[in-house]
From TrEMBL:
Protein name: SSPN protein
Annotated localization: Membrane
The gene coding this protein: Sspn
Membrane topology, from the record: Multi-pass membrane protein
Origin: domain of life: Eukaryota
Biased composition range(s): Basic and acidic residues: 29-40
Pfam family, one: CD20
GO cellular component, one term: dystrophin-associated glycoprotein complex
Lineage: Eukaryota, Metazoa, Chordata, Craniata, Vertebrata
Stretches for region Disordered: 1-40
Coiled coil segments of this chain: none
Keywords: Membrane, Transmembrane, Transmembrane helix
Transmembrane segment boundaries: 51-74, 86-108, 120-141, 193-215
Length: 241
């Protein structure tokens, strides 16, 4: 009798293990792995693509803004186009819109008006930031090329006079106020212009990729924001299991 009992217990244990294995396989095939694969396919370095772009835009926009204000503090004669803090401010605004977009619950096919509006704002502002950064790179490169041909002299105790062509009496002359040392002025401005060109170029590429991701999300498979799973879908899956 004990032998029969142990045999029955073994058979029940084996049936339980088989049932649990079958249930695990069903869960793997029907439930969580699809969501896990979707999450993994839309992440980069552990972050979702919009979050990664928003963080990059915030860091780059802050750097461009700070550097622009530092350039404006060197000399009061520098024009607004030569101190592109305006491009950095636009990029910071774009990053804030990206963070707002991440807080909105995801709905397929943009069923909510708020979600569609925020996505459209992020796309348009990213395109605007792309244009602003390209303009900033162009202005910085133009001024940098001019400064490589400068011949500077101290005109007054607090100003520096630079000429493009000393042989031409009608050549263009640039006067920088609040600059006691012409040599340090030109070296600092050259360094700042190179940094502005590099930062704005990288930011323009990031904004371009952000626009591509939004386009891909609209017409292909990318999603943004918090993933929302309705309760009806989970109930149906439990019934199937």
């Amino acid at each position: 009798q004990t032998g029969k009992a142990t045999g029955g217990e073994k058979s029940t244990d084996s049936s339980k293990t088989q049932d649990s294995a079958v249930k695990k396989k069903q869960k793997k095939t029907k439930g969580d792995p699809k969501a896990g694969q979707e999450e993994e396919s839309h992440t980069c370095c552990g972050c979702r693509f919009p979050l990664l772009f928003a963080l990059l835009q915030l860091a780059l926009g802050t750097s461009i803004t700070v550097l622009g204000f530092l350039m404006a503090g060197i000399s009061s004669s520098l024009l607004v186009r030569d101190t592109p803090y305006w491009a950095g401010i636009i990029v910071c605004v774009v990053s804030l819109v990206g963070f707002v977009m991440l807080c909105i619950s995801y709905q397929p096919d943009e069923k909510t008006c708020v979600q569609f509006t925020v996505k459209l704002m992020y796309f348009l502002l990213s395109a605007l930031a792309l244009v602003a950064c390209v303009l900033a790179v162009a202005f910085a490169a133009h001024h940098y090329l001019q400064m490589t041909k400068y011949t500077c002299d101290t005109l007054l105790p607090d100003s520096c006079q630079c000429k493009l062509d000393t042989a031409d009496p009608l050549g263009r002359t640039f006067i920088y106020q609040d600059a006691a040392d012409c040599g340090s002025l030109t070296t600092m401005l050259n360094l700042y212009f190179l940094l502005q060109m590099g930062l704005n170029l990288i930011t323009a590429l990031v904004c371009l990729l952000a626009c591509f991701v939004m386009w891909k999300h609209r017409y292909q498979v990318f999603y943004v924001g918090v993933r929302f799973y309705p309760l009806t879908a989970t109930e149906d899956q439990q019934q199937k299991v």
